[in-house]
Amino acid sequence: MTMKSISIRETSLGLRCGMLATVAIIGLIPCAAYAQAAEITAEDSNQGLDDIIVTARKTAENQQNVPIAITAFSGQTLVNQNATRISDIARVTPSLTAHESASSPGSLVMTLRGQVQTDILATLDPSVGTYVDGLYWARAYGINADLLDVSSMQVLKGPQGTLFGRNTTGGAILLETNAPKLGQFSGMVQGTYGRFNEIDGTAILNVPLGEKAALRGAFVMNTRDPYTHDTANNRGYDEKNSWTGRVKLLIAPNDSFTALLSYEHYNLDVANTSRRLFFVQPGSSAAITAGGLPAANAYIATLANDPNAVQMNVDPRVKNKTNTYLLTLAQDTNFGAVKLISGYRTVDALTRLDLDGSPIPIHTTTGSQNLHQFSSELQVTGKMLDDTLDFAAGALYFDEGGVDKSASITIPTLNPRTTLFRGDIKNHSLGAYTQASYHITKALTFTGGVRYSRDVKGLTINNTTLMRSTGVVGCQILTLTAPNCELSRSDAFSGWSYTAGLDYKITPDILAYAKTSKGFRSGGQNLRASGTAAFIPFKPEIAYAQEAGIKSEFLQKRVRFNLSGYYTTVKDIQRTTLQNVAPGVTASILSNAGKARFYGLEAELTARLFQGFTAGATGTLTRPKYLQYSDLNGDRRQERFDSVSREQFSLSGDYEHQFDSARLHLHTDYSWQGKQAVQPYNNPADPNNAIIIAGTTAPASGILSARAAVSFSDDAYEVAVFGRNITNNRAVIAALYVPGITYVSTQIREPVTYGITLTARFGK
Predict the structure, then answer these.
(1) Which stretches does DSSP call E strand in 281-416?
(2) Radius of gyration, CA atoms only, the chain
(3) Cα–Cα 20 to 30 A to 98, which of 331, 519, 699, 731?
């Protein structure tokens, strides 16, 4: 199915859901579904908002007719919002948070409706699935690359296990990049210069190859000088140095068949990320190593008033390379469409970190991942029974293999051993699904679907210790034999997912819906099994969710208001626990936490208030709670939920005005989130509990950003200035608490950045 699309220019003026009553009084209709724009099907209008076309059910539909909570953005909307990475959209997406992993800064941790991947390991699958041009990206490396030639981004909330597979108990993110355009020679060149000598360059070229084929290439590079200074070693950290290149070939021999081939390479190599010691427990091995508690506290005090100064004994380094190959075949038929999406992806990642963030050698680690995946998915969509039944069905094969290994040195003056972990994985997955929507009447529709998933996961570990002075190798699991210390196992995990719901068109512009769904997140094994930690698998995570909502438009489509409420129960929720496996040695143990429940409200509002000005609002309330959680450490129901804010809201606005020969576009947005734990620890019996919680909690804070652009010659040329984090909010955004050693280190938000961007387009 081919649809003509044009850019949409929109924004949002967010507000906190706790302000719903106030907003209703002034007539703006409370916080609603900020679904801003994948494609549109009507000419831009100063009177009404543009239709939003999404693919949440594998076919192109108006977002207002899809009975699930969705937040969507067009490529132009992302530009207007200064969104350069996927993590940037979390500012204005209800229930979504995103940040670099504390243990692997080259990867991205995403939390959606309270569901999160607590560690970046090859044996732990994400709870938020990421699909790029229809291909599932199994691992988080490269997901935080700079956005390049993006056509749309959609955030689907709640379990998506029917159409988008296992490992979507929190939701799914769909990123679409621009395909080649037939018969069009066009392109764009863009350059940005900003604070800290930031230099960005983007080039896009679309070349027709006759009448039935076209080639599209895109490239982006990003460099920036360090903004953090190591006062002990005169080094700089927190720089930028990455590039992405992509080429796509479209072949369309007739009106019903297309073949799309693409290749993408991503490369990252940076001195990143700076950390700072926040707390050392009195009498701990870390305090002893630091020369005693007074010496450690003196160091902490020296940096307390300078957010751009650190002192670390190891130069942090992050390197990532990914290669992604994709082939998509699509055939239109008399009943709908058939599509085959096949892809191969490789990941090579290297990380070296000073985890404690001090000039004293307390805790350093290096890690590397060499992974590859292949998948092929067949999709069939269409209509039957005189268009009263819409259906989607398909099958998926997925294969993954590779190595995940790491080395850790803790308190080297007291501990002469280096701890080494290595896991070789071999995973296979099969899935089949079907979903249909039956239009009972013109207003009432029933939707139901099921999916079966089966995973077979194999793991071989070689977890050892190395005596640095003698070279003697020992086994971390004492029952094994050195030097190989090899142990293997294979486990199968399977499960059914489903969705069922009703939606009713109260009026042509108001849709009410209610649905229930089940999501399945695959189990796995403990790659870092050590000491007394048993080499046993953790079970699949099962999410049961109920959702109800309303999608509405008013005042001749000048106001769009969407509201959703959900209640999710998660059984065998997967969690990572840092445990002491030997004096001064810790390991990450994966296990199931029992049972948790999450409920909340999400609301988004968009309003075209007068000609040229669009405003909107988003707001979220989230309430998580452990119902069952106990292990060898005892009852842990009091622990906090990582990266979950109980409240979020955003405010934004866009103004556009056409002059005789130029067009002005102004955008600003403000996003606020309540305090959130960035580590789950909470043990009231610990005398240091209060200070550990203080160091591992991101405070409530807001971020202000803005962009102003003037374009000329029918948008052929544009000059834009921008500012990010304009108020220079330097609050804590990530932290690490390591028991046993015992310390807390923190990472803080980037400072204010600003710059100018020049763009030239041709052949529109």
Answers:
(1) 309-310, 317-332, 336-354, 363-384, 389-410
(2) 26
(3) 519
Dmax (CA) of the chain: 80
d(CA 353, CA 340): 41
Distance (Å, whole) CA 273 – CA 318: 8
Report the candidate in 616, 720, 710 with the shortest Cα–Cα distance to residue 657. 710
Among 461, 397, 451, 453, CA closest to 122: 461
Half-sphere CA count of 102, side-chain side, radius 13 A? 25
- Residue identified by tokens 């021999």 is 253
**Cross-strand pairs, 701:** 673
- pLDDT reading at 217 higher than 70: yes
d(CA 153, CA 177): 9
% pLDDT > 90, the chain: 68
Q: Are 397 and 375 in contact (CB under 8 A)?
A: yes
Q: What pLDDT does residue 17 have?
A: 34
pLDDT at 21: 31
- Comparing CA positions, the residue from 94, 114, 71, 57 lying closest to residue 501 is 57
User: CA-to-CA distance for 293 and 304, rounded, in angstroms?
Assistant: 16
Distances (CA, A) of 645 to 365, 543, 629, 679: 29, 20, 21, 13
How far apart CA 321 and CA 309 sit, in angstroms, is 29
Q: What is the dihedral of CA 221, 225, 226, 227, to 10 degrees?
A: -110
Residues 380, 378: Cα–Cα separation, whole Å: 7
